[in-house]
Amino acid sequence: MPELPEVEAVCRKLRPAVVDRKIVSADIRRCAPVGTAERVSGRSILAVARVGKHILIRLSAAVTLHVHLRMSGNLFAIPDHRFCGASARILFRLNDGSGMVLEDPRALARVEVCETAELDRALSAAAGPDPLTPAFTAAAFAGLARASRQPAKLFLMDQRRVSGLGNIYAAEALYRARVDPRKPIQRLTKPRLDRLHSAIVSVLSDAVQSAVSAYAGPGEFLEAESFPIHVYGREGEPCAVCRTPIRRISQGGRSTYFCPACQR
Predict the structure, then answer these.
(1) Which alpha helices (DSSP H) does the chain contain, by range?
(2) Does the annotation mark 161 as catalytic?
(3) At 32, which CATH number?
(4) Is-catalytic flag, 16?
(5) CB 25 within 8 A of CB 97
(6) How many CA atoms lie within 13 A of 169 on its CB side?
(7) Whether residues 213 and 101 fall in one domain
(8) Is 234 part of the annotated catalytic residue set?
């Protein structure tokens, strides 16, 4: 599944290829409601932004193409729209002959056209601060943590608390901060919360750098992928620090990986 770093990589690769182009027409095969093609045709692409895992393609006349890639979606530009692959769910034809393509083998991605102001209000009300923005301060993070009784891992996964943090990077951030994923977040001391805040930012920043150079699609990385995985998916393998076997437990219906010796 594309997580925040992969979604950021999608945006950075897409932005220079589509901004200032005009959508001439759209071929909607799946993943978008009826009427989407008519609402975007003839509009210019002004910007490509991101909030958490949400991709916001800002269009002229104050509307936004809202894209969520879900489990298996990918959004990218192609130089010639005539060479769009058969697996494309949506093809946006641009005025320079290029195309913007949504591919999604499982057809779980969602695309909708929204009034920009209305969408921004909805996202602001439903989503916590994005860890890669100035709004994600140590003080803001601590304030959210003090108001929650959730276990640390579930707190980080709650999009109302922290926007865009997924299963892999939540586990890795908790490992870097040496925090037990089962510990109630409000019971962490200020120094430990500060350490966890820093770990979240550093994990995501490192992962973005790696994803921008290597991400090719959901579950697909090129040889340049360099983000070090210390606990996620490593059940039974030795911790790199203390050699204790990594454990896996279930939290909120998802697997959590951690080192029981280092993370207390």
Answers:
(1) 4-18, 36-40, 116-126, 138-146, 152-157, 167-177, 190-214
(2) no
(3) 3.20.190.10
(4) no
(5) no
(6) 26
(7) no
(8) no
What's the CATH number where 147 sits? 1.10.8.50
Its domain, for residue 47, covers 4-126
190 is catalytic: no
CA separation for the pair 128, 220 (Å, rounded) = 28
For residue 263, tell me if it sits in a domain. no
Pairing of strands 99-103, 74-78: antiparallel
**Range with lowest mean pLDDT among 91-105, 155-169, 206-220, 246-260:** 206-220
Task: Indicate the number of domains in the chain.
Answer: 2
Judge whether 133 lies within some domain. no
Which of 21, 50, 53, 176 does the annotation list as catalytic? 53
Structure tokens at 198: 């820093």
Q: How confident is the model at residue 218 (pLDDT cuts 50, 70, 90)?
A: confident
Of 67, 92, 126, the position where a domain reaches its end is: 126
DSSP class of 184: B
CB count within 10 Å of CB 86 equals: 5
Q: Which of these three, 89, 105, 126, is where a domain ends?
A: 126
Give the pair of three-digit tokens for residue 78.
């192609």
